[in-house]
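Q: What does the predicted 3D structure of CSN8/PSMD8/EIF3K domain-containing protein look like?
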Amino acid sequence: MNRPESIQNILKTLDLYNKEKIPELERYCSNTDTYDFTAFTALMKIYQINPELLNIDIVSLLLIKALVFFKESDFILLAHLLPPYVLFEESNDKLSVSTKSLYSSYKALNNAEFTNFWTIIKANDSIKTLDSFESNVRVEILKVIQGTCHSLSKDLLFEYLNISSMDELNAIDPNAELVEGDIVKFHNTVEQEPKLASQTESVKFEDFSKLFAHAAATNS
């Protein structure tokens, strides 16, 4: 991953817990082309320590990005870094409402309830902020379908992908073809590159030594 050096330094030092680094992490994580789960997690953890600085729009954007890769654990891991009330208590605040809607979308995708998923997101305005979201989700849904069957009814497939033509389908999979009138046949599956969802925090021991020494000097 071509991660900027400044972001790399944040993730490998005690700046990982520095609230002054929030704006820089927010700019990096909110970039349309950025999918860096380690950086996403770091930002969410700084929000945990400094809840008054939590940016609801940024949190929603990170969850939307993670929602695309619903077969991984990224979405649920990020969601559980939010305050417990957001998912598990009744609340009408913006963060809770937005997150619960996205969580419903995640459950629909994870349970292969694709028709229900498209119904849910039509009512979620925050998802519309990410231009590539729908096309990327279609790719991931098609991977699931191709992993379980070699052909499928055209009408059902179009419903699952929320499309209306073979041209739209062939934009996702150029090798898919219509046979026997209303059956779509898949000639090969779309390969998904492995993406590690786990992450580690690498902070050098000497950084903690400096922190402890400073604390001792302050208290003496």
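A (community wiki): The structure tokens above were generated from the sequence. Confidence is low (pLDDT under 50) at residues 192-199. Residues 188 and 215 are 60 Å apart (CA to CA).
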